[in-house]
User: What shape does this take?
Amino acid sequence: MPADLIERLDAHAAEHDYTGRSEVVREGARTLLTEFDDDRLAGDPLAAVVSVFYDFGTQHVERRVTELRHEHDAHIASNDHSHVEDYCVDCFVLEADLDAISTFVGKLRAVEDVETVDYSLVSLDSIGHLQDA
Ligand SMILES: [Zn+2]
Assistant: This one.
């Protein structure tokens, strides 16, 4: 684990009265593993907007993100590549179920040197209900 991440874990532990960094890591692992366990959304047709930030010019990241885009092409409605300050930003719109979105987000997070992966989910059924009301 990188030294700066260990420092941030220690600071977070101290700030929030954890017994130590391993308790923070444990809770982080639990959160990560249950992140997509949402019975309200499982089985629903969903749309997701996923953003990926990484350092400008890190070709191995750009190559891997492109590979993932091709691998998950069946679920990707659109993809846009932009530059913000010194970062490349890939923005994906997906139309898929929770499992497929979870797999895609997980694979993006596992890409070495990716800075952040964020997403938002919308249940396409709930949009329909809003229109009916
Ligand atoms: Zn770029």
